[in-house]
Amino acid sequence: MADGFFDTIADVGSEEEDDEDFDEATAERRQRKTNGENGFEDSSDEEEEDDEAALAAEGSGFIVDEDDEEEEVRRKERRKKKRKNRDRDREEALDEEDLDLIGVEFEPKEPGRNFKRLKRGHKERPSRARGVDEIFSDEDDVVDDLDDGRGGRRPLENEFADFIEEDQFEDDIEDDREVGQPGISLITSGLQAAGLDEGAEEDYRAAFGDGTEYDWAIEMQEQQDAEEQGEGRELQLKDVFEPSQLADRMLTDADNIIRENDVPERLQLARKPFKELQLSKEEMDVHLTEEAQWITALLWPKKGLPSYFARPFQKSVRKVLEFLNVEDYEVPFIFNHRKDYLIHAPTDQQDDQDDMDGPPRDARPERLLNQSELWEVFDLDLKFRAFVEKRDALKQIYASLELEQSDSTLDDLIDKAVTIEEVQELQEYLHFQYSQDIKQARDADSEANGAQKRANNARNFYDRLRNYATNQFVALVGITPDELARNADTTFRAGPPHIVNDPPMTPEQFAESAALAENGSADSVLKNGKLLYTQELIVSPRLRRLLRGKFYSNAIIDCLRTDKGLRKITEDHPYYEFKYLRRQTFLDLHGRPDLFLKMLKAEEEGLIKVHIRMDGYEDYKQKLYGHITSDGISEVADAWNSLRRDCLDGALEKLQVAIASGVKETLRARCEEELASRARENYYNKLDQAPYKPAGSPPGSIPNVLALSSGQGQRGDAICFAYIENDGRVLESGKLVEFRLGNPERGIPDGKDIEHFVSILQRRHPDVLGISGFSVETRKLYKDLQEIINKFDIHGPIYEDPDDGREKSDPLEIVMVNDEVARLYYNSPRAAAEYPKLPQMVRYCVALGRYLQNPLAEYASLGKDIVSIPFVQEQTLIPQEKLLDRLENAMVDMVNLVGINISEAFDDPYIGRLLPYVCGLGPRKADRLVKAIQANGDEILTRFDLLGISEQDTRELKAAMGPKVFQNCASFLWILYDASEEISDYLDNTRVHPEDYDLARKMVADAMNMDEEDIKAEVDDGGPSAVIRRMVREEQTDMIQDLILEDYASEIERKLGNRKRATLETIRAELLEPYEEIRQNFALMSGDEIFTMLTGETKESLHDGMVVPVTIKRTFQDHIEVRLECGIEGGVSESEYPNGVGNGGAEPRQVFQPHQTVRARIMYLNRKALTAQLSFREDLIKQPARKDFNRIPGEWDEKQEATDKKAEEKEKEIATGRPNRVVNHPLFFSFNATQAEEYLGAKEPGDVIIRPSSKGLDHLAITWKVGENSYQHIDVLELDKPNEYSLGRQLRVGKYTYSDLDELIVLHVEAMTKKVTELTKDEKFIKEGRDSAEKYLEVYCQANPKRSMYVFCANPKYPGYFWLCYRAGKEARPGAWPVKIIPSAFEMEKSQYPDLPSLKNGFKMLFQSKMSQAQQRPPTQSIPRR
């Protein structure tokens, strides 16, 4: 039965062939065996016994000789290679379609009888079981032996032909193939068989190759496959993890190269897209000098320094470039340890005695480059690399052409190019003029390198245009594009201008003569000549450079709204400020990069079109006409001048579009750079704050913090807290529920959690309380905490008063903490991993405490999420990669300013997150650093341990980095000085770089007046830093201030050639106070920042004059308390009530109810107290304040704006079927239904407005307020209208007709209002609705089981209708009848009742009648359901 599980007719190469069997005895997978060439599966035991016998023979000592084994391997490799060649030849063999493609005639072969001998059956062929190493092998000897180059299955009618073959066996065939004619592939033999002559064969091989072009690649792939499948290969990470996982963990081969290469990581990543600079010293000097000039030209105009600093500035830039490119120093190292080269001092003039343009001798020292400008130089260095690579590639192509006569345009402009745009234009010009030469040069280069020469005779469009006639035509124009540009560019023109001469015949005459000579068409000659000359104008690099210069100096930006923008950009839209903006220059956009980026964003959304044009374009085009035309006065001259102008017009039209596009993208990049720089500066300012410092504590100390938050501050929300020790541990946390102070005068006790909170304060003694939250309720928590601290006399840490030396303590300080980091942290996976047992709001408090203790580490912990924090308005307009790069630069600067205690960083993951930002390091090298320290026993005693160098012979250390990386990072990783450790070096605890240790030791020895013998004795006894250890031990560090550092600096520069004046100042400062805290004090939040944090509003989103929705809280006679949507508490004074409310009118409580939403205008917004004064006055609400953009006359298209508004009104009329109709009545408003309801929301019930109707010009709509949040809309049909815009003489509402609006309002609306009032004032009216009414009836009938009851309630779904709800006893079901309000009556069950008593009596009579009818009616039989 086992045979039934196998497919005995499987094809060769079928999927079943590689399937595995399941061994039931061993519960393992075993490889299926195949038998025969067709891969028949064989389940017989015979072969299994053969296999077992073979295994037994091998186990009993039959060992294959190594030589035979090697020969067998070589034989297999040859067979494998030949098989692949055969497969390739078979794929490349010419079929009928191929021969037809190349135009070769062929005759189809008649099927012949070439098979003579029966093939040996599969049972004659011994099967060989595959070994374990061959399970997944592509090699199949069974199939190989039978492969004769004809793959695939035959048709069914010829399937038995497989058993007949030619008069040769496979072995003979194999031998014939091995000794066949060398160099003749199946393609070649196919061509010969096809009867192609030598020329046709050569064309075919040139087009398609001869099949051997990629043998080298096949051999490399085979070698690689053999290496990958080799035995004994060590298991690698890429064998276990997916490539994406390795990339995420930075464990790819490329990451390992970066990790091990002794170059700063950030430099490696930045330079990755570029070639490595491999220049000699002389070539590097030339390169750096050119680059310094290039960068100086870009940076110097922005500096604003006196002109005599231009040369020192360029020298400083060149030195920085030398540090970056030759020494591989990072920006923080250059800024901190090469700052002397960034400052120009008067003593620097001694180097340039002949510099008459330099700064005066008495000029004060000037910082030439600050830290942010160093990063800019770094970025420009990368851009210069890209520029030089592109320019060098252009030069290489140009040189490879070996032109007989060089191109003067290229010779002149290549070295003058200063932007990638200009190089690109030169490259386009080169390819246009010499496309065929470039192809020939590439073919020659390929042939020289041994690559196959491909036939590529394709010519571009303009190459096909070039012939004798068109070239002659272009020459007869009389002026080349380069000569035109030279004539027009009067600034740089040397020599007299080119004179344009006219030929003796008109363009048409020349075209006719040329067409006769070449048997062509005169029109085509004329057309092709104009096209060719126009294109020469377009690709002319000199003309493009000239036009671009004019474009930049005279560019005008217009914003043209699209049809979509016309509808979408309304007056309250953020894009409205530039919807009709016109004639903006680059100067107008200066300082407002966000404006232009918003324009481009609006353009991407299809709302506007940003059109950049050249101001005075037509005038400039007329000037170009004068340079391209001749002065001749004849029909011939006029004809040629007309042609020249036409060609110039066509070229200028295309050039203007291309240049405008380039200008737009260049301006976009500059605006993005400027906005990103602002974000970097603001981020740097946030990083530049030390931990919160309690009074009396030393700078840099970390406080103990108790952080609290009320979260959203909603009713029932608990107050969460967390106590964080100064070492970062969370020692206590919890929730405070009853946390309100009592009122002794009213006998209200304090909340029970206040006592618990006070006990925590007394037990933990925090240095500061930090609070924050998500709503304005946080402000109340702040005030409550102040009262608790004052009431229970809670004080902060004790400190010594600097004035009188007495110990004192201040009341415990409460700080409102910036929570932008905490909001990103508290619900993140990282927070859940660090504190899995803490609630989210407690994690939020932990983040607040950490921010007070270490703002720098908190921002660093965000990683790439830092871009989620807004640092400038419209930050989302900056590309994320560019923004992240700038923000990371700021973090790098600050981390290296502060330094890192390496002993803490490698052991504490929280501090360790700062390591990648250390100069010279990065995430990969920081990881290597940590692992090296761990391999060295988690111990690091000196900075030189990082290099694997130890003063103790007994310590064998693993190097954590190379010398170059160490040079960059050494001074920013400090080790706490331990006087009890002999190997501990005091300088390792300072910002002094190890390269300056000897200089620091010399300064200390001189300050202590030690001679050489004293120094030698001290060093021999205590090591190189023994002198400094002695100074520290004897507390004589103040002596270092007596040194005259100018003399030191002069001596060092004279002897060593190094500038060290600023370095000496650093050494002195560090000897006095190692790694002094030089950041700004902890930044307390400003009122505006607190306002934005707690409300989510900014100065732009909420300000005085805005009309906003508010919710009524409480109503009083003289004021109303309200709440804005953002949580701000507001008040409306009596003077700001609407007309008819207060001052003898309706009482406020009758008009405004709690929880009602109404519109109000902000009169005054107190951002510090989070309160607002508002107005309900209708005249103010109708006129909200508009934002004033302070536009210059002429820059706003007011005419277009007015036209669009008029068209919008007309479109609205067409859409609604009515114009903006105006009716002369005090109650008429041009409102829609929603606006009418919103307007009446603050009115009394019964108030009414008249408004246009959407049903047409013969209708009006009347909206009146039935009750709270209930409004009825009445359709009024106008009859007997004098014209379509006038009011009808008869007004009909249903079956009621009135003569005018006043009569309609009095007799219809007011009459219904009286009935509504009559009903709602009745004792049986339930205000809460039908559910409450039925609940009332249920309770009443349960108390009075045998009595019936009815009540009235409103029907909110249908304004103007009410429910009469009833219940006839406890056991009866509740019911309800609708009651409709009509003028002067109630309508129920199609009957009208003039007053409420009549309605009640009518209900009783109808109900009794229906009950009687129900009792007399016989019971109905149930109808069976089908």
From TrEMBL:
Record field: compositional bias (Acidic residues): 13-25, 39-53, 135-147
Pfam families in the cross-refs: HHH_7, HHH_9, HTH_44, SH2_2, SPT6_acidic, Spt6_S1, Tex_central_region, YqgF
InterPro entries: HHH_9, NA-bd_OB-fold, RNaseH-like_sf, RuvA_2-like, S1_domain, SH2, SH2_dom_sf, Spt6-like_S1
Record field: compositional bias (Basic and acidic residues): 124-133, 148-157
Region listing for Disordered, in residue ranges: 1-99, 112-157, 346-366, 1194-1214
GO CC, one annotated term: chromosome
Keywords (A to Z) from UniProt: Chromosome, Elongation factor, Nucleus, Protein biosynthesis, SH2 domain, Transcription
Taxonomic superkingdom: Eukaryota
Primary location class: nucleus
Compositionally biased tracts (Basic residues): 76-85, 114-123
Molecular-function GO terms, alphabetical: DNA binding; histone binding; nucleosome binding; translation elongation factor activity
S1 motif domain ranges (all copies): 1105-1177
Subcellular location per the Swiss-Prot or TrEMBL entry: Chromosome; Nucleus
PANTHER family documented for this protein: TRANSCRIPTION ELONGATION FACTOR SPT6
Family the entry assigns: Belongs to the SPT6 family.
Function: Histone H3-H4 chaperone that plays a role in maintenance of chromatin structure during RNA polymerase II transcription elongation thereby repressing transcription initiation from cryptic promoters. Mediates the reassembly of nucleosomes onto the promoters of at least a selected set of genes during repression; the nucleosome reassembly is essential for transcriptional repression. Essential for viability.
Protein name as annotated: Transcription elongation factor Spt6
Organism from which the protein derives: Lophiotrema nucula
